[in-house]
Amino acid sequence: MHASPEAEPVLEIANLSIIYRGFAGDVKAVSNVNLALRAAEVVGLAGESGSGKSTLAYGACRLLRPPALITSGSVTYRGRRAREPVEVLRESPEGLRRLRWREIAIVFQSAMNALNPVLSVRDQLLDAVTAHLHLAKAEALEKVASLSDLVGIDRSRLRSYPHELSGGQRQRVMIAMALAADPEVVIMDEPTTALDVVVQRDILAQVVELQERLRFSIIFITHDLSLLLEFADRIAVMYAGRIVETGSSKEIYHNASHPYTNGLLSSFPALHGPRRRLTGIRGWPPDLRSLPPGCPFLPRCDLGTPSCEGVDMHLARVSPSSSTHFSACPFVRAEGPGWRKGGAELKPPPTQNTGATSRGVQVPRGPGDQPSAGPLEAIGIGPGGTGSGGGSHDDTGFPAPDYPAAGS
Ligand SMILES: Nc1ncnc2c1ncn2[C@@H]1O[C@H](COP(=O)(O)OP(=O)(O)OP(=O)(O)O)[C@@H](O)[C@H]1O
Ligand code: SF4
Ligand SMILES: [Mg+2]
After folding, report:
1. Distance in Å, CA 239 to ligand 3 centroid
2. Which residue has the higher pLDDT, 157 or 278?
3. What is the pLDDT of residues 308-366, one digit of tens each?
4. CA dihedral over 321, 361, 57, 378, signed as positive or negative
5. Is 281's C-beta closer than 6 angstroms to any atom of ligand 2?
6. pTM of the full predicted structure?
7. In this structure, which ligand is nearest to the CA of 299?
8. Which end of the chain is more exposed for a tag (fewer CB within 10 A), N or C?
9. pLDDT at 257 exceeding the cut of 90
């Protein structure tokens, strides 16, 4: 079921800016970002490495440590269990402890490698359950067993140590840990990136099934936009610390407007459909310590002109008929099967998928629906960012205590 667009967001990020202080200058990792997550909604956050996805998510949960500094914004949580809205950036350490895991849980980037190698999976799940739910031992053990059922880990594997499990099984353990306290919001930071595509899809299908059954909301972070198209309700595309386009999955798929989004769409192969040439995005993301004036995508944009240096990057409606589709590029708008600006024309993104599902965009399955077997002509994604990854983790899976946000 879809979240109603009128419903008040369960998590509302407004005007959030985060920098990393450094001797060589401040890294503007997140700049004036607005993002709303509604109850039972899946919002996908896509963007190249280093675009600020993790910083945004961890900053919104106050999980960053110096040299990170929140310089502006607010984050409001309105869960069903919260008596009144919680202003996360002003919350006390005690309030944050209550909020994390119970209300907002995170599956961290590369989390499956953070499992304790000398404890069985059962003991680690038991730790998570007892730390947050205050259950008696027998009840906690029953909860661990039901969590393993929930994420599809055979109970007989609970006595295994992490090294005895496959990557997919370890990732399922991390998802089980995140769901241990029935949170209302789950942030998943690249939870399946290290896994092969078949396991990746298996886990995603299960996450969606759980999400629909338990009705929590998800912010799902990945650099793979094509993956999000299939199962997210809405997608926000980040570039250089800003959201440059946001819309429903169908809007992004059928009518992507921002040239960067179109570049991302032509950077990833789809699992199904005919072989196609991947054009990618030329060049590299900008140095976030010294951003060029105006649109930060200008050095890589085939449609850029000198007037792009005056663009203020606010998100504006892509078309008067949609109240959900916004782009930060004032010059290029999706116009059906082609994209025009002046005399220039962009090729539309590959569209081998057809038909719409209740969630995202469906990949057809049937005769002739073979995995793409061709070589990748180009993957134009730039260099790896440092991937903040959230710092060191304590035995609960969350990073060690954060520092107060600026002004709090
Ligand atoms: N501790 C840090 N100190 C300085 N700069 C940092 C730090 N952590 C991250 N950055 C910078 O902040 C920017 C955003 O990083 P972040 O990890 O949020 O990106 P990301 O989109 O999550 O990337 P990835 O897809 O690689 O995980 C990058 O330019 C990165 O180099
Ligand atoms: S503002 Fe200019 S440089 Fe930026 S995406 Fe639009 S056309 Fe390209
Ligand atoms: Mg990241």
Report:
1. 13
2. 157
3. 999 999 999 999 889 999 999 999 876 544 444 333 344 333 333 333 334 666 543 33
4. negative
5. no
6. 0.83
7. 2
8. N
9. yes
Residues 31, 33, 36: CA angle, nearest 5 degrees? 170
Q: Beta strands 326-327 and 333-335: pairing type?
A: unpaired
The residue whose CB lies within 8 Å of the most ligand 2 atoms, and thus the one to mutate among 331, 333, 339, is 331
For the chain, give every domain's residue range: 11-223
Q: CA 380 to CA 369: how far, in whole Å? A: 26
Output the average pLDDT for the chain.
81
Average pLDDT, stretch 390-397? Answer: 30
The response to whether residue 332 sits with its C-beta less than 6 Å from ligand 2 reads yes
Calculate how far, in angstroms, residue 317's C-alpha sits from the geometric centre of ligand 3. Answer: 28
298 burial via Cβ count (<10 Å: 0-12, 13-18, 19+): middle
* Residue range 292-299: mean pLDDT, rounded: 95
The reply to whether ligand 2 has any atom less than 6 angstroms from the CB of 297 is: yes
Q: Which atom of ligand 1 is nearest to the CA of 238?
A: 21
Angle at which helices 137-150 and 167-179 cross, to 10°: 130
Q: Is the Cβ atom of 54 under 6 angstroms away from ligand 1?
A: yes
Least confident of 191-195, 263-267, 276-280: 276-280
